[in-house]
Amino acid sequence: MKKGSERHRTKITNDLMHYIYEHIDTPINLDTLSADFGVSKFHMHRLFKREFGRNIHETIQSIRLQMAANLLITNKKSTISKIAAMTGYSSQTSFIRAFGKKFAMTPKAWRNGGFMAYSETIVREMPDDLTSDVTYENLSPVIKKMPSFKVYYIRHRGYDDAIKQCWQKLQAFTLGNDIRNYSQIALYHDNPIITPLDECHYVACIVLNEPFDAEKVPLPSFEIHGGVYAEFTARGYRNDILKLIRWVYHEWLPASGYETTAKHAYLIYDDNDFLNETGDFSLKYYIPIVLP
S-S: 282 plus which of 42, 67, 125, 270, CB 3.0-4.6 Å? Predict the structure, then answer.
């Protein structure tokens, strides 16, 4: 496949995945999307499965359920019916049926603590030598109105060491173009504490904080939404970030009086453990919040 065609294929599949995450609370019409992208629905399905290893319908179903599972934990005052609607289900009955098939328990049982055992099996996948003894229980967030960001990105399926290659490619782009003023952002489409690590979509992003011709950027782009976020300043080693996320979602947020939204959490690096020699990170982690 020619380079231009390869870039076009990547743009279609990445734009489609981004659209799914952005509109997971609504009916997603694939006929309309294929027309918007200028390709047949058959070709769109084929490109998507080739890129992500799963068909579009399976992906939509999985994202809906993973997001619902997260909201059941964090949004204590939202009814099951409301969470079903927030994640694109037309009825509570169809949501409960799909949830039970995925997680082998009802949404109510999950919310009442069933998620803990499920999460623990994921946390146990982390090698002990990739974490430290750091804890985050004493962190106190700052509530901030964050701006929107236009980011250029590389998407990676799985939370694993191969993420480093994404950051190295972004680094090669900035160095090769003598770009000095930029920010590194990691976007978490999924909660890696309740989504199996090999299914998580991790997005390595850069924000260009200096003028640069967008036509010369060989990377797809999208906008991270602005809004009200809780900001946590944290340090750690390698997979300690998963400890931070677990504490924020499982402990801080349910007890905080806030709820989260269908927007995505993200972090901004001061020191990126995937690019330095020590494996230590320094960052600010942002989670969207609302008052119920």
Answer: 270
HSE (side-chain half, CA atoms, 13 Å) at 245: 23
Q: Identify the CA nearest to 54 among candidates 161, 201, 164, 262.
A: 201
Dihedrals φ, ψ of 233, to 5°?
A: -90, 125
Residue 244's nearest CA partner among 271, 196, 283 is: 283
**CA–CA separation, 76 and 78 (whole Å):** 6
pLDDT tens column, 95-122: 999 999 999 999 999 999 898 888 887 7
Q: Read off the amino acid at residue 23.
A: H
Q: What amino acid occupies position 132?
A: S
What domains, with CATH codes, occur in the chain? 3-123 (1.10.10.60), 142-288 (3.20.80.10)
283-to-72, 84, 267, 269 alpha-carbon distances in Å? 27, 33, 7, 4
Over 70: is that where the pLDDT of 1 sits? no
3-class DSSP assignment, residue 26: coil
